[in-house]
Amino acid sequence: MNSSFRLVTIKGIPVEINISWLLIFFLFSISLAQGYFPTAVEGLSPAAYWLAGVLTTLVVFASVLTHEFGHSLVALREGIPIKKITLFIFGGVAQMETEPKSAASEFKITAAGPLTSLLIALLAGAVYYLILPRGLLISQAVFIVAQINLIMAVFNLIPAFPLDGGRIFRAAAWFFSKNMLTATRVAVGLGSFIAFIGMAIGFMIIFFQGDLWGLWLIFIGWMIYQAGQSSYSQLVFKETFSGVKVSELMSTDLQTVSPDATLEELADHFLHHKFGAFPVVYGSTTHGLVSLQNMKAVPRDEWPEKRVSQVLTPLKEAMVLDPNTDAAEVMMKMAAQDVGRALVMDKGDLVGLLSRTDMMRFMQMHMVLGSD
Ligand SMILES: [Zn+2]
What we know:
There is one protein chain. The protein has 372 residues and is of the alpha+beta class. It folds into three domains: 1-157, no CATH class; 160-241; 246-369, CBS-domain, CATH 3.10.580.10. It contains 13 helices and ten strands. It has helices at residues 19-40, 46-77, 103-131, 137-156, 164-177, 180-209, 213-241, 246-249, 263-273, 292-296, 308-311, 327-337, 356-369, and strands at 4-10, 13-18, 82-88, 91-96, 277-282, 285-291, 313-314, 319-321, 341-346, 349-355. It has a four-stranded mixed beta sheet. It is elongated, with a radius of gyration of 28 Å. Zinc ion (ZN) binds next to helix 2.
């Protein structure tokens, strides 16, 4: 889901469109142009239906964007910068740089979205019922806009975190428990439960009614479940590693190997010290990092002749960290680049080794002992 392109920047917030959005845009335009409009207003040219279909779809997506701006503008007022707004197949998402600082703040930011949708629905509904004559394409278009905004407000209020309803639920749980992590855990639990019920209903629709529409429900349920899980673990990450530096987590008990050692000697080294990798050092120069994986790539009968220098990951390709870097940031970077270990160097001197295992162990310890 990373293939997005930037559309425009409004009030300093970049608006991006994910390519999955193009599919829903297309499907929605077709169903309006070929199904809804020709049935609602008969006897017009296909071009007129297509024009109405595409324009209405654009207005619908402008409504989605307005919903996200509802969240974003309140977030900005609460002092939380917005990284970007992305439109994708299921709607939109406004990415906040940080989590809200209080339950009240979360409630305000979240409620602003469905409230915006509800306002648009009321406005469009009023225009449809009070102003426009029946039987025109534009009347039907306004009616669709009202309907979709109403659906959007109601759907988003389902208490399945990270949907808006789930966030409002979390804000309430946070307010009463005074603990954001606990509140998130409860909200994600409820959200997963609802997501699984949605998926179960989706399966039943497919098996008992033979209607593929159930797939949509399974898909949405799964997305909500995944999103809930990942936002919870991200939060645990941030809580655990906030204010922790690389130097506090790295192992300083350094076992190094020489670049001239043979792989045979390296194998003994691995068995003896039971580490997954060693910094390769000669004198005071660090050459890189050699891991079990580097070694596994070489056939066994070559081990007596091959040298560490021939298989190592050179310094310029290894991940090198400064001891003062923020651990949370490093953890994200290592996960994103799928790197298991990094060398920690201070002004060119090797001072430690940091592995993802070290960090996971710290996280487990932190969870068992509690954050206090
Ligand atoms: Zn929302």
